[in-house]
Design brief:
- The structure is a homodimer.
- Chain A has five helices and seven strands, in the order βααβαβββαββα.
- Chain A is globular.
- Chain A starts with about 20 loop residues before the first strand and ends in a 7-residue tail after the last helix.
- In chain A, helix 2 runs parallel beside helix 3.
- Chain A is α/β, with parallel strands linked by helices.
- Chain A has a seven-stranded mixed β-sheet with strand order 4-3-5-2-1-6-7, sandwiched between helices.
- Chain A is about 30% helix and about 20% strand.
- The interface between A and B is medium-sized, with 31 and 31 residues.
């Protein structure tokens, strides 16, 4: 973590008292965003890819060392086929594009299910580094919290054991809930909810979340 | 659940579109409340018992069928001895008083640790009914999320398996985090945060939380 990109700013130059090591990202609201515009709900996911790169760039600038994006879940697979194709394609596109940038990539999800996109198998359950490896970027793809916990029962460790504790969990789309996002790693996470839908991401959203986090005392339940 | 106390109001008579089956309660802020008043931090816990009964009464009136109170945790045991005595005593007092009322009581926590108050052993890991049994009231006492999950690894079920899914989690004291509260049962819970410290509980806080819950769509991650 001693490398610096031209755009990277030392955390000391930011106005935040503390920068979380690991941020969880729940990019919710794609379907509501699309419906508001008279589009098919599933069409919203394609508009959720570019915001992820804006956020990624901002995380790099602020020196955040790890981020986990909630791609899609086993629960999400109950949705209509058109939506399933759309969110799967958005995940594949996001990971493929990130593979050309500066990140240590990791995809966690149940690869034994046909819902897992085969394009992402090279990154599944192992970390693959690109560029200077300035940040760990994890995607939960066909993730299932119960599968994650059952893996721990069977093998003694979570399927997601390569992902550390989440310090700050930021959710777009106004809902204040985990929706099964890494239940073990999130036990102590501070949660910040942004009302705007994910495709309307603005860098200021992250700033607001980091400002909030700076006011939280970290007690780890103590 | 067909019994009715004189004070019980049918949910149909309330203004809420939906009443959650199971509410989780994180009564945080006792120490900050005490410190604000120049008291020893630990003295705040004693002021947190009566608010619990005000809330319990309101839950009965609204027909809520189950509530789980976050008593204290293994993490909390790192605090100074005076605080430990105070929160343990508050839990014992709350359960003892509730045993004279109308509730199916259950205490979940690690009874093999000396931090578990022996006065609560009769209610530990089994439900004991009082009065008409109109509501299930659970207390997490010397609870430890990791102990809960490890129990599942060892035995195939959570130590807290008698506690069902949490629909709405209400936390007092302004912080938006689970702090290890029932990680499995809370995966889909809608979280509502009240800024006031727990000893300043007002029935209107519950109303606000229920109003919020009425606006949430329950998708269970789907």
């Amino acid at each position: 973590m001693t490398t610096h990109s031209a755009l990277r700013v030392s955390p000391r130059q930011t106005s935040f008292a503390r920068i979380p090591n690991h941020i969880g990202v729940i990019p919710d609201g794609n379907r509501r965003w699309a419906a508001l515009r008279g589009m098919d709900k599933g069409d919203g996911y394609a508009y959720g890819v570019q915001p992820g790169f804006l956020l990624y760039q901002r995380l790099l600038e602020y020196g955040v060392r790890e981020a986990t994006f909630y791609g899609f879940t086993k629960d999400n697979n109950k949705r209509p086929p058109r939506q399933r194709s759309a969110f799967t394609e958005a995940c594949v596109q996001a990971v493929a594009e990130l593979a050309n940038r500066d990140a240590n990539l990791l995809v966690i999800g149940n690869t034994r299910s046909p819902a897992f996109p085969k394009e992402l198998l090279p990154y599944a359950n192992r970390r693959v580094s690109f560029g200077k490896g300035s940040i760990n970027v994890n995607f939960l793809v066909n993730y299932d919290w119960l599968w994650d916990l059952h893996c721990a029962r069977r093998t003694g460790r979570l399927a997601s054991h390569l992902i550390p504790r989440v310090d700050l969990l930021v959710r777009w789309g106004g809902r204040c809930r985990l929706s099964g996002f890494l239940p073990v790693q999130s036990v102590y996470a501070d949660i910040y909810v942004i009302d705007e839908y994910w495709p309307d991401f603005q860098p200021g959203h992250l700033d607001a979340a980091l400002q909030y986090y700076s006011t939280c005392d970290v007690t780890l339940g103590g």
